[in-house]
Structures
1.
Amino acid sequence: MSFNRRDVLQRSVALGAALGLPGLALAEDWLTLRAAPAALKILPIDKPVEALWAYNNRYPGPPLTVRQGSEMRVRLHNDLPQDTTVHWHGIRVPNAMDGVPGMTQAAVAPGQQFEYRFTVPDAGTFWYHPHVNTYEQVGRGLAGALVVQERDPVDVDADWLWVLTDQRLDRTGRLVESFGDLHDSAHAGRIGNVVFINGSLDQDFKAQPFTRIRLRLVAATSARMFALRFVSARAWLWALDGHPVAVQALSEPLTLAPGQRADVVLEVPASGEALRIQDMFYGDRGYELASIKAQGPSRKQVQAAPKALPDNPLPSIGAPRQAAVQLTLQGGAMSREATREALWLINGKAMKSEGGHGHMPALFSLPAGQSLDLHLQNQTMWHHPLHFHGVWLRQKTGDQWGPVRDTVLLQPREKTTVRLFADQPGHWMVHCHVLSHQAHGMMGHFEVT
Ligand code: C2O
Ligand code: CU
């Protein structure tokens, strides 16, 4: 076998990340993402799962690892039977690199290529996925993590990445291809029956007693939410949606909705014990997601909580200069507003495809360098993780503005206020990250002038 330089480089990037030792993509080199149909052995049976779509024949896509401040250069090849793009979820990119067809670029047709090139200003855990027929393309497996490493190494013993996905499989291990099913779409979305960590069902891990692990969690599911409990471990929250938070011990389950990420620091328990990670989101359907067994030579236990991660260089932007804007989420099964054509709505309108934004007015606009308060009202009976492209936000709790995020989870019937901060001009999307809600209308756009 012979490798050219790019192959070797990509292998080392991918391998390094799998081993928890992320390699560095060299700034002067191009990475390749090839989106194509795939049959992959992701189940502990002989038969591969057919009808997947994958980047570089991997499920999930290869983890891309770069150093903060460096330039990403990614060449997308489309070998799918339909158009595609790549969206860099949570990365502050210029509008032209945001991957929204008909809004920030032309869709990449089958057989065509597109070059993405941008610098990554913020360190943290991000991800990438298509933005065309997202419910089907992400649903079939097109999604991967983008890890941006801090400029200086941070104080942990290990750096682990877990991309969480799920699939709906029948008893024989075949993919149930009912993407876009109307019943799913009108309710909680397409929730799978098998949950994968990094595309695998082998969810028993090992680590040395009392080591501290940075666990990067990416919820790359189409609809499934998580409420993770770390049993018999000391655990701290370190970052949300890529951005550092004030370090806090995790006492409540950590909620992760589609699109969201969290970095936690886990302290491995004493030798022979296991740290169990349980998902409690669906109440009585709780299950054990993974366990980490303490094994091997023990470290000395450190008492102090980990130090906070260094802040990201977000421009400082003051209080809003314009009046707050109202966004009302409506629709779903049995609601008065929903129709077959428009199951889900924002402010009474359903946007059915990104390309169609020209027919729809922007929901609001704000100048770059300014902020804007949004009153969000979820009038539906379902959860909606609302993702804003191109801006960052903080949710109001009491009199406080919460941590920096790019995706805010609205509980059924919840009313809340978020403050958006804008620094890049352009037309940007806002949509529910339950992908069949997005596909059936819960999508809109706004303008940063
Ligand atoms: Cu993660 Cu518009 O998407
Ligand atoms: Cu939704």
2.
Amino acid sequence: MSPTSQVPTLKALHALNPLQQPAYSSPQQLAEVVGKLRTLPPLVFAAECDKLRTKMASVAAGEAFMLQGGDCAETFADVTAANIQGKLRTLLSMAVVLTYAAQVPIVKVGRMAGQFAKPRSSATETRDGITLPAYRGDAVNGFDFTTEAREPDPQRLLDVYHSSSATLNLTRAFVTGGFAHLRSVHSWNADFVKNSAAGVQYQNLANEIDRALAFMVACGIDDDVFRTVDFYSSHEALILEYEHALTRIDSRTGQPYGTSGHFLWIGERTRQLYGAHVELLRHVRNPLGVKLGPETTADNALDLADRLDPDHEPGRITFITRMGAGKVREVLPDIVAKVIASGRQVAWVCDPMHGNTFEARNGYKTRAFSDVMAELNGFFDVHEELGTWPGGVHVELTGDDVTECVGGGDDLVEADLVSRYQTLCDPRLNRNQSLELAFLVAERLTTGRIKRPNPVQAYVPLTF
Ligand code: PEP
Ligand code: CO
């Protein structure tokens, strides 16, 4: 592994002309913020990252499935107990469906506690003849369309740190303090089960789990093994100042870790082989994700794997493919086949969101639930044909009853988008749509069409 001394300096990273970085007007202020960030405690502990890397190795080996989800962009205003709880219970409900309906261990990872910065396709936005810097997420500037709000402000990086810290603190409390106890399986969805097909399906599954728990207790087995769950944070490592300031040397091993989150990914727009993002992340020991869009070639993927994971370390690399429903069957097979032929075992995760965004006739940026499922089905089919393990799903979702994606069991149409369109960035699945997706994925995993390379023989979900 790379020795500590090789972590590049920020100056060296900037010499690589990093893409998607804010144009800060005061280097002095930025330096002060970075200095302050360097003094603040790490948000995650290196050993937790190691544990997640081991779990991702199980995903790569076909023995577990990754569920990664959360907002497209977290916002400071939404760092509230209700919002965090809502996302968590959506993810826990989905995980329960996948664990018990698909009989596969689930690695649970939130797009949470750090997902505050966004890459943009255009650096500016024009409205009514006025052009201002694009909104790059609360980490960088404000959403309001004013000169003041759109000015990148380095102080916001401190707000990212504190908002992530608060989110992580409550999440840790929830997942270890009883909220995630399997006994509460009903309560995660109590207020919406009645009115949707997926809700009813969920209720039935929850009833079965209740009966199993009651049986265990009657047999004298303590059901407190289900009291806590392992839950991890993740985000796109985009803003170099922030990620660099939180790159810390683990006192146990002397190795560098990105301590802003457990799992860090490199986005589709910043994964240049010799670019600054790859350069920084190749030096940290975290499990890493790399987004692969429809233009990716097998050689691109192999080069990235070689650069980020020269030692072929189990669990190190997750390729998050986001090809679009119309392209996945054409583009993915060659990439998977050649990566496998190279002798690498990576985790393959499908992001069925980012290749399927379109503008509705009323101007809203949306996604169709049917396209999301079509990409997922394409992903599953490709892996089935190649005999490789479809290792997980990466989704943008919320715990709220928003109307941002069309379709799904509630049959949302474009005219519904106006009623509860709350995202500042990409459209998210609402709670019903998320649960429905979990059942459909569970079905794909259990129809027998998907064969696990290393079937978890008679998997009994004794932990959740
Ligand atoms: C994202 O995950 O929010 C994102 C911007 O994805 P991508 O890099 O795949 O476009
Ligand atoms: Co997004």
3.
Amino acid sequence: MLSDKANHETIIQLKMKKGILGMIAMLSMTFTGAFGQTSALNIEVNAKKPVAQINPHMYGVFFEDINFGADGGLYAELIKNRSFEFTDSPLMGWTSYGKVQIKDENPCFERNPHYANLTFNGELRGCGLINEGFRGIGIKKGETYKLSFYARTPEAAKIRVEFFDSNNNQVQNLTIDVVSKEWSKVSADLTATFTDSHARIRLGLITKGSVDMDHISLFPKNTFKGRENGLRQDLAQALADLHPGVLRFPGGCIVEGNELTSRYQWKNTVGKVENRPCNENRWNYEFQNRFAPDYFQSYGLGFFEFFQLAEDIGATALPVLNVGMSCQYARAKELVPLNELDPYIQDAIDLIEFANGQTSTKWGALRAEMGHPAPFGLKYLAVGNEQWGAQYPERLELFVKELRIKHPEIEIIGSSGPSAEGKDFEYLWPEMKRLKVDLVDEHYYKAPEWFLNNAARYDQYDRKGPKVFAGEYAAHTRNKRNNFEAALAEAAFMTGLERNADIVRLATYAPLFAHKDAWQWGPDLIWFDNLSMYKTPNYFVQQMYAMNKGTDVLAMTMDKKAITGQQNLYASAALDKSSNEIILKIANTQENELNAAITLNGIKQAKALKCITFTGNPTDENSLEKPVNIVPSETALPTCLNNVVSISLKGKSFTIVRIAKEK
Ligand code: AHR
């Protein structure tokens, strides 16, 4: 650190160069004047010459159906196992009473053939089905819900629908007539008269006879953008509010599957929602001592909905496809022989047609039929998730060859394995260079200290090979909490992503969602229960970056060096060409306040427009009870004198300053 005197002198020398205006200002306000008696760090920004362009899609989110992220989470369906298709137990999620049988003769939906047959002969106990929802059904008083099911009956029948609260009291009911002898859809709207996060629904046959029922569904009317088969309003809105540039989906390990048969197959997730075959979720097993034995994918949130969501929230879509390998962490470790890989490669080609093809093509026509004739504008495609070993590049190579011929416009993303260093990583990077993929996906779930120590990680990366996609990362504290300590470490580390925006083109925090009663993996960006949600400190860091990314990187130095942890300071600067503003991002990870004098070389007059500060104690968190316990806030603007910005950086803080510049 510079001594007070040296610091003072440097500032005076700088100011001497500023001519008469600067000298007058200097007389009235020296640097010690701005900061009382405290010394200031001298930081310089070269505002004249941007050093790299920032990808407009740089900061984004990674969605995986883990922690009840899709079914039971973002996907607004409230009935679990609505199609009676969970493999081991078609009645999973349901309790039946009376004579209820699962049948599949002459089904309503050929790819989801099971249905429930209810037969009632006047027995005292009655006959029907009770659904438990996803760890309960969340119902809000005053909200309207759409109940629907498919049914057929030889004689007209009545179904009594009853809602029970978590104390097992019947709180609301209605009766629905079923008259059709052929399968037909029956639906009714109801406005809730109660609020409960753990309600249940009962459907009972109350007239003598028999009824077949399938795809029993309950949706809030108020979904994101009011769509049928839509997304939970609050969770989708939280994504929109983040302003992500990219949406990576649908995983993660679920792309790979516990076995190849249960891998994520996008073609099973498009078309009529009732006919999308249900699949076992990769996370339907014990992980970190958390067991979710009822974790299946209805695929109601499928690839069409992902593309639509990306478009709705202003993000570019980044789908991940299976490369012909099941999850290497799971037991089966299956491989598709190289000479049997064609259907997998065809899935990739067809996906591009589904996203971008003309409506006259097979898959483009399906997209149009689903409601989106215009292309989605897919640019990126990842093949493989966290693969490792020689089997991966062997398989990826075949994809790359075909994709380069048929779709040279698509940027291909390869993997560097599950870790940010070590032998798999060191083997895969040269392999990815050999295959000339466009980007390499790196994953790191590491301690906060690792993030702080790695702020300069990308400074020395080879600029000639593939670019980097930081596809999964999060700081994991000892107890894996979403606290401010983790968020600040991520903020500090991300200054290094931004400084290296020429090579780091995309970055997505992971994972995204977690249901507080059904999670396997923490930390996560957004937590929720059946009625409400909260944003973590980590969310706010991502939001601060996404909303202040700028268009170009400016060199920012202290003692002529990039600021990567000296004095526990981490910083980057960007120019926003559209607004002609300079955006400074500075993390101070030490306990004490630091003062900085930031000289913006190349401009005459700086004018601070906005200062956002995020500060707190390392253990501070948000929660469902206290959702805004720790949030960033707008704070007093720093002083600007000519081209020098004088700022006090609170201990343990992340600050963003937006500055208008005048040449
Ligand atoms: O994000 C959770 C999991 O972490 C992902 O499924 C996988 O890619 C990684 O191991």
